[in-house]
Amino acid sequence: MTTLVPITLNIKTVFGVRSSVENGLYFQDDHVIVYPAGNQLIISNVETKGQKNFCCPELENLLYFIVHGGAAITAIVAQGDKENIIVAFYDLHIGRRKRLFEIRNSITSIVSLAFSHDAKQVKHDAF
C-alpha cells in the first residue's frame, strides 16, 4: 500500500486583480503570474517578488484574456469603439503588442478563447 505525501500550499496575496474578469489570473510558469490591473498588464514573480508591467490600452474594456505559458504570449479580447470586438496579442518577454485584429461582424461577445499547443492558432467561441 502506498502512502500519500502531504502537499504544502504557499498562499500569496496579489493586489489589483480585476474581480469582474473571469479567470483574470494566469500562471505563466511555476513562479510567474500574469494579470490585468487597470490599463496595465502585470507580470509578477512570486519567488523573487519582482514584477514588470506594461501598458495595454485594450484593457480598459477587457472582456477576456488568456496566457500561453510556453510561448509567453497573451491574447486580450476587448470591446471596441462601436459594435466591434478587438483581439490583441502581446509578447510577454518584451511587453509589446504583436498583432491586433478587429472583428466587425455581428459578434457581440467572445465567451471562450484557447491557444493551440504550439501557440500558432487561436480558437474562439462567440455569440
From TrEMBL:
It comes from the Eukaryota. This is Uncharacterized protein. It comes from Didymodactylos carnosus.
